[in-house]
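fold description:
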Amino acid sequence: MKKLIILFSGVSHLIYGFLTLYLPFYESEFIRYGFQDFRELIGGLQIVFGLSLLIGLYIYKLRLLSSLLLAIIMGGALGTRIYIGDGLVESMPAMVYLMINLYIFINVKKSKR
């Protein structure tokens, strides 16, 4: 089950990172968030950390670090959604991914493997 959650999170962040970089919809979304100058950076980080999480299935420290960094990004995404006044439905993906990545991080810390 833990591997499935890691796969889900890693692949999701990888896909979202690419969508952020290449879909015009996300250009307007990042303008709405007030982060238009950081769209490529955020998308790139999600690609790198999503891929790192997948590789982290085999490397403990990489799994630990990438899950923590993805949780931080998702915490920022949730905070941004709240700050700009988005409702629960719009904020739910950031909240869910924040919880998933925290779950991965906490379980990696507990297992130390």
Remarks:
- The chain has a mean pLDDT of 94.
